[in-house]
Amino acid sequence: MGSPTTVDPVTEPTNASQRSTPDLADLRRRIDDLDRQLVEVLSQRIAVCHEVARLKEHSDTPIIQPDRVRNVLESRRQSAIDSGIDPDFVEDVMRVVLAETHRIEVAGRRPDAAPEKSAVRDNRQGSPTDVHTALDTVATRIDHVVVTVADLDEAVRHFTLNLGFHVESTGADQPGIAVLVTGGVTIVLVSAAAGPAVADHLRSHGPGIHHVAIEVLNAGYARAALSPTTDLTSLVDDAHGHEQFFAFRHPESGVQLGYIARTGHRVGVATQNILEAFA
């Protein structure tokens, strides 16, 4: 009778179900392959857009066709719903794609060549612990801009009647705060009625941009990267899973930044978190 077979608990699974489960490396390889396919599909789509641009150049077809844009966004939202994907996410992706394809149609008429670019940007050359590299790794976009206003009703009227925005319900509307959206852009208006801290800010600084909120992949990671170089608020979150923290207002520039990560369902701006920036 031979010696019993030993199993290394670190390197070998201990039962059949574990052996049949793909490991993290396998899943990442699948993701890498799907990403390559995604880039290839984008390349094919852009190639077709170049053909569209050439046809438009020799016809009276306008470059921007609003009905076509709306149809693309609505139909892709429905495709997302049919596929079990959040339609807001797919709309965000499609808006980026449409902006790039529109740029291509216009830029293709320029006489100068496009600039050469490399896979690694200059601001990604630092070490993983460098604050610039760390934030560049997780920052994705400007999520929203918060603006303090003296008269909320008048500001809402101006943005909706004159600037093309519409009011978005937040599900738990906060007095003195209005969330305005148009396309992929969100602006949050805040008045003194939102709380004493906002009233104090308006008395000291007047109306205007209060802070710009940057969406990050992970708020805890972003805060840990920035905390050695600047003062930050504590991490706060709300019932919807919005995790957020803020840098303090820089007196010389008047700039304040917020950092937000969504860890719950994809819903609108967390108005209760916004007030933390005024504390």
Could you walk me through the main structural features you see in this protein, from its secondary elements to its overall organization?
It is a single chain. The chain is an alpha+beta fold and 279 residues long. The chain folds into 2 domains: 24-107, Chorismate Mutase Domain, subunit A, CATH 1.20.59.10; 125-278, 2,3-Dihydroxybiphenyl 1,2-Dioxygenase, domain 1 (Roll). It has 9 helices and 8 strands. The chain has an 8-stranded mixed β-sheet with strand order 2-3-4-1-5-8-7-6. The protein is globular and about 60 Å long. The protein starts with 15 loop residues before the first helix and ends in a 5-residue tail after the last helix. Residues 1-14 have low confidence and may be disordered.
CATH class of the largest domain reads Alpha Beta
The CATH superfamily of the largest domain is identified as 2,3-Dihydroxybiphenyl 1,2-Dioxygenase, domain 1
Whole-number average pLDDT?
A: 87
| Largest sheet report | 8 strands, mixed
Using only C-alpha atoms, the radius of gyration works out to 24 Å
> What's the structural domain tally?
2
Strands of the widest sheet, in order across it, are: 2-3-4-1-5-8-7-6
Percent range for β-strand residues: 15-25%
